[in-house]
Specification:
alpha/beta, Nucleotidyltransferase, domain 5, five-stranded mixed β-sheet, 40% helix
Length: 258
């Protein structure tokens, strides 16, 4: 059988017992740091004073199947539920949210919709292929310049709204951010209802070829929504008539970008 006598009589090694120390230390590391790879774990072992060489540690690491991709549970935001009551006055609470659609050739675009909860007035519909946090801040600065500063803004936990650039802007301006609970869009019901109307009357009613057409039609519809369209929850009067502002902003007051 070509088996040497020394190999035949060699005692069986209990690797589980021999490597128990390595297993315990690796388990202690990956229990709290699930995204660490082998070399980061090994360097941490060496920094903690363990003298095992990398070949032994890697063998145990693979036997524990730590070299396979692990699914980590995604962390979710914990937010306090905010009461949804229509404020008695303008610029008390604004609401904003995104909608998504596609043009005739398949290119996708987004719209950032901002309303004033006091009279349900649509303040801005910003259209773009991409609307990152920097652009959200720019739109909000334009709105503040035209309408004045709100006391608070109600919004969801999207990355554009939780980015440092946006939260820092709100903090500098003394604007409170009312984040809704994750997965509870009903807590932002005013703008969600506006999004539904905007989708039915604009996005689903037109075929767009250019992003500029989307912005132009959205601006025209926004004026009609604020000044002519009856709003059932406002006693069948448009927002501008229910709680008028001291001035009428024009589209030219905003910087249009496509």
């Amino acid at each position: 059988m070509r088996l040497s006598r020394s190999a035949y009589y060699a005692p069986t090694v209990d690797w589980a017992q021999r490597d128990a120390g390595v297993v315990d230390v690796l388990n202690g590391i990956v229990a709290k740091r699930t995204r660490w790879g082998f070399w980061k774990c090994f360097r941490r072992l060496r920094a903690d004073g363990y003298g095992w060489n990398h070949k032994r540690v890697h063998r145990v690491y693979c036997q524990m199947r730590l070299n396979l991709k692990r699914k980590a549970k995604r962390r979710t935001f914990t937010r306090e539920r905010q009461p949804l009551e229509a404020p008695q006055g303008l610029n008390r609470i604004w609401s904003m949210d995104f909608t998504h659609d596609a043009m005739y050739d398949g290119r996708t675009f987004r719209t950032l919709n901002v309303i004033d909860e006091g009279n349900r007035e649509a303040l801005r519909i910003e259209c773009g292929k991409s609307i990152p946090s920097a652009r959200v801040v720019r739109v909000m600065e334009q709105l503040v310049e035209v309408y004045g500063k709100p006391d608070a803004i109600r919004l969801d936990n999207g990355p554009e709204f939780t980015a440092d650039k946006f939260t820092d802007w709100a903090e500098r301006n003394g604007i409170k951010l009312l984040y809704i609970e994750p997965g509870k869009p009903n807590q932002n019901a005013f703008v969600e209802r506006f999004n539904r109307t905007f989708r039915e009357e604009v996005l689903d009613a037109h075929l767009f070829n250019r992003l500029g057409d989307v912005q132009r039609i959205a601006d025209e519809w926004l004026t009609d929504y604020n000044e002519y369209r009856p709003h059932e929850s406002l006693g069948d009067v448009p927002p501008a008539e229910f709680m008028p502002r001291s001035f009428k902003p024009e589209v030219s007051d905003f910087e249009l970008s496509t």
